[in-house]
Amino acid sequence: MIAIRRIWIVVVAGVMMALLYTLLLLIPNSRADDDKLSQQLDLISQLLARDIELVRAGLESDFYAGPKRPSDAWLEQLIKQPNQADLKLNGLMHRVNGKVWNVSAGFDRADQIPRKLETKHWLCQPSCRLLLRISRGSDELIADVDLPQWLSVQGSRLGLNLSVAGATRASLQKLAASSVEQDIGLYFSSRQSDDWKSASGPVLDGVPMILSGQRSDPPAIAVHWYVLLLLLVLTLSGMALLTHLYGKRQQGWRQLFRQLEKTLSAIESGNFEVVQKRLVGSMQHAPELARNFVRKLAIYGLQDEATKATLAQISNDKDWLTQHDGMTGLANRESFHQLLQQTIHDADSSALLLIDIDDFKEINDASGHQLGNDMLIKLASILAEHVQLPYRAARIAGDEFAVWMPGSTLEQGEQLAAKLLEASRQIMLAGDNMLHRLSLSIGVVVAPEHGNEFDVLMTRADIALNYSKAQGKGRYASLRDPDLEGYLLKQRFMYSRVHSAIRDQRLALAYQPIVRVNDGSISHYEVLLRIEDEVGSYVSAYPLIQAAERQRDVGVLDKWVLNQVLTLLMQMRRNNQRHRLAVNISGLSMSDAQLTETLLQRIEFSGCGPALVVEITESAALENISLTQRNIERLQALGCQVALDDFGVGYSSVNNLLSLPFDYVKVDGCFIRKLSTDDAVIPLLEFLVTISKLRGFQLVAEFVENDKVAQQLEQIGVQFAQGYHYGKPELGRLSLEHDDDQTSQTGQV
To answer: In what residue span(s) does the EAL domain sit (predicted)?
Structure first.
């Protein structure tokens, strides 16, 4: 009897330890986590307010420009029309003098909407909904905003469960139906559990709508998987002994074991759909001693089932993103490439349009990346309106778009280009104290006359595009333009300098330090390419790189730079110096499988991977996410670190920061230059710092030019910086001149 008690004590102790370990995983680590959650909720609340205002402003513009008496079809079309935010609409209602005129599908309980509505109205009768009201004389347009969808998307990106509720609590059960004032509305909120936190203030001024959230904590669920298996194994072993010793309950235990064995098989095979059913059956047949334990297992089974559904949804989203651009919804470069190659031989003639926004970087620098994103979305809407099947539009790079017109002639391509230019001239967006008109440059080519392969056609279209820019922008050009021959000769001359510069040894490398913000110590150096000009001075090689990229031959420069860097690193290694160097690899090189293989082999042969940081531009990284991820993983396998360069130029790519395993993210200088003058930059950088800590990468701020900006970056929490404040790019072997003591201090992150 004593042996039985000892076995029972051991089993119970093991179960309690496992359960305690599981519960500890669910308890927040410290008050700092709660503070971080509150800060995130405040930031998300601000983002939600901004998106609500964007949707309201867009509806107001469309309503003023719309018909006097909108039809049901017009309302449906307005709902489907893409907006500038991630907010979707459940439905729209049109009222005249407070009476319903027409209602779109999806607008629930239209007859219960109060006659008197504010511009933004948070209504709970009894379920809460956000209504946006736009008035035009006696006409009203009322939009029912889909807040749950927005909260679900934002929450999944940050690992949070999000909800909104009113700030005033009331009980509908205590009020008679006749006492509910329809013209005023009733505000209330349900109580959240203690682990939910709320934002410090309402989402919108004057609207009692508070954002609340809790961490969904997916990694903890993964740990529960092993804890669940441990509990089952421990319980099976202990209960098997007790069943043998307690013969009176032998039959009940045997049935329990059968059910638990089936549950284990379902878990191991990934068949979560039957886990709950198996566990409920186990609970029904188990002796009283085991029922509470099996009930807890059933709860864990439900958690794993929900996790599987969430992962399946994320997988579907990723499948869509591999074929489309996340911001505009157009096809991306990879899917556009596949479409062109599949259809290029199906017709005698097909036209290709390559489209670029004029002065896009200057627009971003002058009025911020948000206005740049708005301009990209406007261009995407123009393409969606004018490009109909079987034609196809795509976003190729940051501000570069393309249209494929199978079965079309060069004349038809030029006609479409003229229509797109005319439509773009009607678009004007307000920036910081200035207006920006959407101006396009378009290059038009035709297959097979100008080529029958994707790369060849894109090169020819890029030549025509650059020629149109050289003629004054805001126009199109095709390869049959008689003045294009002189332009081609000039481009060929510039391209010829690529090989002559290498042959005549007129290229050199400059080094600019990247430092730690907290103490100013050097982390590593960025390598920059320079070329000797006619008077013997070394200047930026950017025009040379552009010419090589237009000819799809920039790989020759990438190989030269990488060879020089690897040679330098091997020399430093022989001198027991441990500096690290960051080198840029162009997007064209990274998308060329054969060239990428050559570069990777040279890095592996040198053994200098741990001393190398490879920088990939944002536009190149997001053209083909799956290929970028494979290249990053291969570089990291060689010991290299990988940086995302020029982050924030024309992309809404925070979602990609959550999926691509970068070691560094370099924030583009257009943000850093505005840090002291634009208050909107600070919360953006704070948000990026939060994401960097969650995802394990580090931020590098570019173009830091004075001590004030450096101090602000340190307060925000940005880890690294580079710019003239810390050091200008210098030619020569600057990094070899330091002694071993300084090298040992600056060679590690």
So the answer is: 491-743
